[in-house]
Amino acid sequence: MWSGCASLKQIDRETPPQLQIHLIADNYSAHKHHRVKEWFKRRPRFVMHFTPTSSSWLNLVERFFAELTEEVVREGSFKSVPELLGVIEDYRAFHPHSKNAWPHNALLLLR
């Protein structure tokens, strides 16, 4: 049985209990799996909202990765994963708007 992800559990713990938690997700099938639905059913303060099908441009994380792929990855040739991660971090450093879309360190991608 799906027991929820660590991020959702942390949000649940750290959000005052009287507040609802609204989540926006794309229509990826994993977000609508019956185990995921059951997890949310037992936590009614979580309210799911789904972006329309074929609207990846609304998803900031997808937009960030699309820009990163177009501007950095496709143009480059990398000899190692650490080199690629360094280029990703450089991209983020010179594109401050990208921090709003993906605030995590690139090393988290390997975990």
**Element pattern in H and E:** HEHEHHH
Largest sheet properties: 2 strands, parallel
Structural class category: mainly alpha
CA(first)-CA(last) distance: 22 Å
The rough form would be described as elongated
Q: How many DSSP H or I helices?
A: 5
Strand percentage: 5-15%
**In order across it, which strands form the biggest sheet?**
1-2
Number of domains: 2
What's the pLDDT, averaged over the residues?
78
| Count of distinct strands | 2
Low-confidence region ranges: none
Instruction: Give the helix level as a range of percent.
Output: 40-55%
Gyration radius from CA atoms, angstroms: 17 Å
Overall description:
With 111 residues, the chain is mostly helical. Helix content is 44%, strand content 9%. The chain has helices at residues 6-14, 34-41, 60-73, 81-94, 98-101; strands spanning 21-25, 46-50. It has a two-stranded parallel sheet with strand order 1-2. Helix 2 (34-41) links the parallel strand 1 (21-25) and strand 2 (46-50). The mean pLDDT is 78.
